[in-house]
Amino acid sequence: MQNAESDQHQVPIELERAIFEMAADNRPLSIPTFMLVARRVKEWVKPLLYRTIPVCEENGDVPEGHPFFRIDTLLDMIQSGKFPGDAVRNLLIQVDGDRATLLSACPNTENLWINADLGPNLFPQISVLPLKRLTCNLMVLFGPDRPMDFTHRLFSRLTHLEILDSMLFNASDTEVDPKMLLDLAVIPHLSHLAFVHVEDFSDVGFIDFFLPLLRGCKSLRLLIVFDSYVHILIPRHKDKEELVWDERFVVMENKFYTKEWILGAHTGIDYWSWADDFVRVAKRRSGEIDALEYTCGPKPQLEQDDEFSI
């Protein structure tokens, strides 16, 4: 005689796994509870708990329902051998500590955001990662004694690059020739490029850099400038028509922080996808918006007496 439990309808194992994985994606903080359901469920969802690791100071830096990690806790786990670093794909490091050990423990990281002050020479740990997305300060990444080489294997798989350092554009403030950044065009799969903190500039000269980069980087589908003044500086430039007619060029407000990065890592919806839609779907190409409009989102609010106003 069969027992009653065996007669009950059984959910196909593939569907059951898909349900739990979807629930874990939507509510990462519930993963520890899901792990108590059954051993098979624990095996499915535990890696998802560590797929995206934001190393922050406070939970206010992460969206509601998403975990955050302290670097000392992670280092203790690494030392004890209980850290599933192979599961990590998205890693954000905003705090000080032994970042070299943490990076080495996450060998499959594909999406890395590391704050501008990388700390003591982390190039060896970062350069061996299979990165597809990188947000960092290039000058600090390479360091003072290493040439800025975009043919390095670090960039061989990279599709998305967000550059945090503005000093690269101002030769008076650094020994690095900003024209070296034109070599970004040799990154073989670079499709998305963003520059942050260019609001420090007080003239239109830096635009001279973006034009040849757009011309030379054939794989580039999107160039974002996060800036408060670009959209009023461009009208002064001698080649303004060529720049604004290039549909890949987009200006956005610099209001994207760790929460947006974490949501983007989980859902694929972030400022990259918003700008992609602005450029590609039904906007500039279709005439839904003016082809000469290159500001995605609200235009920055500037004071009437701002020195850059025209």
TrEMBL record:
It comes from the Eukaryota. This is Uncharacterized protein.
